[in-house]
Amino acid sequence: MKKSAFVLLFFVLLGNPNLVLAQAEPEQIKVDENKFQDFFYESLKQKAIENYDKAIVALEHCLKLEPQNATVHFELGKNYLASKQYKLAYTYFEQASQIDPTNKWFFVGMYDVNYATKDYEKAIYTINKLIPFDPKFKEDLTSLYMNTGQFDKALALINELNETTGKSDRRESYKLQILSQGKYQNAEIVNLNEQILKNPKVESNYISLIYLYSKNNEVDKVLETARKLEIEIPTSEWAQVSLFKHHLENKDGVKAVNAMNIILASSKIDAKIKHRVLNEFLVFTIANPQYDTDLEKAIRYFDNDTEVNVNLEIGKFYHARKQWDKAIVYYEKANQKSTVADLETNLLLLQAYTETKQFAIVAQKATDLVDVFPAQPQFYYYAGLGYNQLSQFKKAKDILEMGMDYVVEDVPLEVNFNIQLGEAYNGLGDSKKKDLYFSKANQLLKK
User: Fold this and answer.
1) Residue 249: its pLDDT value, please?
2) What is the DSSP string of 4-23?
3) Are 353 and 361 a contacting pair, CB within 8 Å?
4) What is the 8-class DSSP label of residue 252?
5) E strands along 380-438, which residues?
6) CA 163 – CA 95 distance, rounded (Å)
7) DSSP conformational letter for 308
8) How far apart are CA 228 and CA 207, in angstroms?
9) Of the candidates 169, 131, 171, the residue with the CA atom closest to the CA atom of residue 155
């Protein structure tokens, strides 16, 4: 709240009814006028050299001569304010405003005291007295509402000022602070929708609304708002979100790729929307594999994404559709991008390699992962499975027996361990132990 007050003193003695004293002689009136002027100009002289105490004494003499003179009260307020006697300063400014409520500078003096004492509640009362003199004081009122935590009033006033005077950096900063608290977002959503109806060509209102919907995970409303934006401002980056979906529905891959690339490269568009766009294009490529290269390029936009491992998610997408070769490609990419071995990625990768019967890779990778995750029995299982398929039964037996100790309350995995141990002993020619482990597997299956 930056303020400055330039006070022009205007003082008229002649014609003031307060000077007309009952049954006073003209000579006496003249003497009083001269005394008043002497005391008043003495106060100005002393104030100029910062002798506020002497200035106050001179003004008190003036006040005895003219107790209803608003200017004297105002000057007393200024001297008390300068000497940091805030309570007395406020009293005299207030008395001046009561004598002459048409002079805004008297209220400015009260506001100066409110501001100096950080009495923001009282400052709100004072600033509302000043607004009729000059609507620009509404800017100060916005800050006062923020300082007193009256965010609902602040938001309403910010929206009013944005509409009547245009946006300002300070107000936009206040607005972000308010909207970080979820309970005020609904009111702002209503306001933004109203602004869009009034001014459909103002892109910032759409973007602010999209931001709020995105923050609330209301993706459908994000897309609906983007469609409205696309109709009104087709050149907007956000409009590409709607156009992208339109191109996919029309099976126009070339235009969809172009819209997607604009979206993914944009610094304005939320990451959640980018992930959704990528996912929709991924589904599109299932039926249109000629765009696989464009998909690979699109994925590179997410190389620095710390929240979502995009390669892993795409691998899981192909995994669910049993497109094992593609799943493997993306799981391997996920591993390359990761600085540490990821448990989930590697378990899925081993399953995909098993489905494609690449048992040499399964055995080698699983054995290496046992060293990284020595308490994870799944890696012992995949290593044993791989070695059995490669007819390396001794290796299979040894690693499966080590891994069995880590199987806890996981019946399906325990069944698989027993089956693979049976296979290993069968390969080693030990039919007795083969039957033992197969029997254990059958008993577990019956539970």
Assistant:
1) 86
2) ----------TT-GGG--TT
3) yes
4) -
5) none
6) 37
7) -
8) 11
9) 171
Structure tokens at 359: 């048992």
Q: Which amino acid is at 365?
A: K
Query: What single-letter DSSP state applies at residue 166?
Result: -
CA distance 174 to 391: 71
Q: Give the pLDDT band (50/70/90) at residue 28.
A: low
Going by pLDDT thresholds of 50, 70 and 90, the confidence category of residue 31 is low
Contact 348, 328 (CB under 8 A): no
Task: Note whether 229 and 203 are within 8 A (CB).
Answer: yes
CB of 99 closer than 8 Å to CB of 93 = no
How is residue 3 written in tokens? Answer: 């303020």
**Residue 72: both structure tokens together:** 């004297």
pTM given for the model? 0.53
Summarize pLDDT for 212-260 with one digit per residue, the tens. 887 777 878 888 888 888 889 888 888 888 788 888 988 999 999 999 9
Q: Which amino acid is at 53?
A: D
Structure tokens at 262: 């604009």
E strand or H helix at 299: helix 292-299
- The residue written with tokens 């200035």 in the block is 55
Domains and CATH numbers, the chain: 1-118 (1.25.40.10), 309-356 (no CATH), 359-447 (1.25.40.10)
Cα of 95 vs its chain's centroid, Å: 47
DSSP letters for 26-82: HHHHHHHHHHHHHHHHHHHHHHHTT-HHHHHHHHHHHHHH-TT-HHHHHHHHHHHHH
| Longest distance between any two alpha carbons in the chain, whole Å | 140
Which positions ≥6 away from 157 have C-beta within 8 Å?
A: 138, 141, 142, 145
